[in-house]
């Protein structure tokens, strides 16, 4: 890689890491569109460019989530009982997600990414106040919710915060706790999804050198290094921001990135 590309990837990693800490989104929603742009500009095979962007983004979350969750845990904001209930379904769903993504062509995958992100941004921005009596479901419901979060996260290469944060907020979990808990959920999502992307991409023809399945290792290394450094700063900022401002930031970022991927789906 040339130095200009390394600097771009470092900047992306810094932005993704800060967003991961701030919003509990694992950075994937921020990174996938930008990685897609870079891989397209470097003439990666068009039929796998979005698949590789999603897989590489998901792999970075293994590192970002650990850095982010340490900062949130220091504030006592991570609700570990929720993590334990959601994690089994998440691990299963995150393995299935990349397999589903492999069945989709680049155009369809980009469209799916855009629609899911726009939907969750809308839910976060205008979702009504949850009923006072609404609570998190029991263990079977949490397993099912974790499975759904894992599948979608594996398909679109994100840490699951764009589903888990609104889900927990809808069940009357405070937004700051929801963000922190989502950051903790990012690791099992990323680990299972990364192994799945390696497995299902292992025999894919036409991948560029230094690929591990669908993961482009040089980009992963540079982005992860920067994101790990910035995630704690984002986490600290999250605990200083009011709830409505945090939701607004979350939604607006997701709308912008959904717009790019929608454009990518038809060009």
From TrEMBL:
A Pfam family per the record: TauE
Annotated coiled-coil segments of the chain: none
Topological category with respect to the lipid bilayer: Multi-pass membrane protein
Ranges that cross the membrane: 6-36, 48-66, 78-96, 108-126, 146-167, 179-202, 214-237, 249-266
Keyword Transmembrane among UniProt keywords: yes
Similarity section: Belongs to the 4-toluene sulfonate uptake permease (TSUP) (TC 2.A.102) family.
Protein name: Probable membrane transporter protein
The species this protein was found in: Massilia antarctica
